Amino acid sequence: MDFTFTDDELAFREAISRFLMVEAAPEVLREIWETDSGRSPDLRHKMAEQGMTALSVPEECGGMGLGDVAWSLMTQELGYYGIPDSLADTAYVAEGLINDLPESIRDRQGWLERIAEGDVRIAVGHSVNPLVADAHLADLLLLEHEGEVHVLSREQVSLEDNPSIDSSRRLSRIRWEPSSSTRLVDSENGRALWESALNRGALSAAGQLLGLAQRMLDLSVDYAAQRKQFGKPIGSFQAVKHQLADVAGKIEFAKPVLYRAAYALEHADPLVDVHVSQAKLACGDAAWLAARHGIQVHGAMGYTWEVDLQMFMKRTWALDPDWGDRGFHKSRVAAHVLMDDAQLGPGHTFREA
Amino acid sequence: MSLEFSVADEAFREEIATWLEANLQGEFAPLRHRGGPGDEEAFPELRKAWERHLAKAGWICVGWPTEHGGRGLDVTRQVIFHEEYARAGGPGRMGHIGEGLIGPTLIAYGTQEQQRRLLPGIREGREFWAQGYSEPSAGSDLSNLRTRAELDETSDEWRIDGQKVWTSLAHESQWIFVVARCERGSVGPKGLCFLLVPLDQPGVTIRPIRQISGGCEFNEVFFDDARTAANNIVGAPGEGWKIAMALLGFERGLSTLGQQMHFTQELELICQVARENGAARQPALRQRIARAWVGLKVMRYNALRMLSGGEDGQLPREALIYKYYWSNWHRDLGKLAMDVLGHTGNVVDDSDPVRRRVQQLFLFTRADTIYAGTNEIQLNIIAERGLGMPRESRSNA
Asked: pLDDT tens across A120-149, in order?
């Protein structure tokens, strides 16, 4: 039993964090918001250079061969820096789905290589999400139709733009015609692929929510130390500091839940659905609390456009229902706990099946 | 105790309902359900015209005493007025700061000359007011304000220098009331004055502050040798804090009732969305919706109890808990609204007015526990004033 990360995993995370701190400062992100596409090819290219798109691509396809556990760290960084680009959709969710395809599929290896090189954007349309992120820039779209996997180019679909309250999100409703020529996998084999894709998507959202929570906490701690009222930093008042301590507690207790879920995904745990749902709920709760207490501590400043807190709050509110809303994930957990033959007692803390 | 409406009350209800139905038509039809919290910037000119229209029919300042041109309605009738105004979708009131805050303050503390000069503009829906309290270094610590006022004996004017912030609708107003420091070297609540200052003058600059919702309902207001006549002071120099606090006491009255009707409509809207999109079938959401309804009823009963008491502007004990209660209830309602919307919650669709209102509700409610006294300040008031507990140690800078 070992709940820790290796030095290599931590060092990679640290390197990515330092890189994003420089390249994706809030003022840069605000500039990207204002562009037509809402995305920066330059930032995407630099992230690929850092190896972020190659993380879980198998080594024989030019990747690093890491898995879901590594992504549980990486997605926190994407959240912490509020990266608008849906990089994880391509490099984690789509990559995972393509990697799970039968090797007989002709384009499989080529796609994986292109993902690792960072020169492809793949949008994923799962039925749990009515809208698809970053479809407007996608080279390929992986779309679900009654359990089947379809692959289409952007020219084969029509997109309807759906602006979000989070200026960094670019969402589209997609209209398309499934046909035998677009179908990659039939429903019999496709359902399991989509179930895994859903879990990866939810884990990706969970990791980002946790990173967002940490960012909002850090911003709030800084603000409470600087802002003075009654002749003192407001952070010296218990009514203020205790709110941030509560957030810290939520974040720390969500982390191992996220890691447990990532481990379950990586090791094909039969209860992976339950673990992922719990992680999504725990990380979502932490992020909501961080937003609520963060804006409270910021006072009216937190309600302004100018102060960066809003960027991370809005991303939180928008991501929370992504890849399964609260009702969906709570139902999955409840269904497990209330199963007739649920094994919940001692001896099943880590080995539940 | 009597919790019934009389036959005469019901006749009054019929009267206002009929009037609103007949008058929120034609040019005013677009105003229905607009201009509420989070939507304050909607149709400013048309809403000002609506204020004048209301005024002509005697439907503003309904709670003011008749000798000051109001209708002198008792609490019951005011409740009915606000219920019907909200039910008809009456627009957010541009004149609320004048009617609900500075008007009652002038009636209680102003000179006869000030009352004669300033109340008609409010009562006739012609003049609008902004509130100059908060400053960059005076938020929760309001008495730390630094805006200075000095009486210039030669011109017989107050000269004002400093800055106010979070000033709602200053850009749509003619007047601002300003709490300023008039005794050099004074600290805290001592040495302040309460001035009435015209906004349209070279010494005043108004700069909008963009909010997370994208709108700019509030402003920074800069005073750079701004002027107001010597007789535009309420109370004496040095009494500014007393007047400023008394004004806040009036905030609970009229605004409270209108606000609760607005809450009732929001809850109804959320229920409507939940029924339509299936969220009403989710047990967890059903429970939260029921809990929200229960919370609203509690709030309403408490408000009616609070307002049934004396009318001297003094806050009864139960009033201390009011802001804390409603703001937390409303913040939770905003979260509930987002959870009921689910996926569509973060997607903007201007063609769907219901969704737009629910999203505005959500974003606006993020500020409820902050403006008009934060949660932390409210709890301190309850603990210190309500329970008589020792004050937190505060060093004065």
From this structure: 999 999 999 999 999 999 999 999 999 999
Orientation of helix B283-308 relative to helix B253-277, angle to 10°: 160
pLDDT of residue A95 exceeding 70: yes
- Inter-chain contact B284–A129, Cβ cutoff 8 Å? no
CATH for the A7-188 domain, from 1.10.238.10, 3.40.50.2300, 3.75.10.20, 1.10.540.10: 1.10.540.10
Q: List the structure tokens of A204.
A: 């990706």
Superfamily of domain B7-94: Acyl-CoA dehydrogenase/oxidase, N-terminal domain (1.10.540.10)
- Does the beta-carbon distance from B348 to A237 stay under 8 Å? no
Q: Which of B336, B347, B360 to mutate to test the interface with A (most CBs of A within 10 A)?
A: B347
For the stretch B213-260, pLDDT in tens is 888 889 999 999 999 999 999 999 999 999 999 998 887 655 677 788
- Cβ atoms of B298 and B290 within 8 Å: the answer is no
The number of CA neighbours under 13 Å toward the Cβ of A353 is: 9
The backbone torsions φ and ψ at residue B378, rounded to the nearest 5 degrees and listed phi first, read -60, -45
Q: Quote the strand ranges of B44-202, DSSP E.
A: 129-132, 148-152, 157-168, 175-181, 192-198
Provide, as residue numbers in chain B, all residues whose Cβ is less than 8 Å from the Cβ of A229: 137, 139-141, 144
CATH 1.20.140.10 at A190-337, yes or no: yes
CB contact under 8 Å between B394 and A303, yes or no, is no
Q: Give CATH for domain B252-386.
A: 1.20.140.10
pLDDT of B114-161, one tens digit each? 999 999 999 999 999 999 999 999 999 999 999 999 999 999 999 999
Distance in angstroms (rounded) separating the CA atoms of residues A28 and A20: 11
- Residue B36: is its pLDDT beyond 90? no
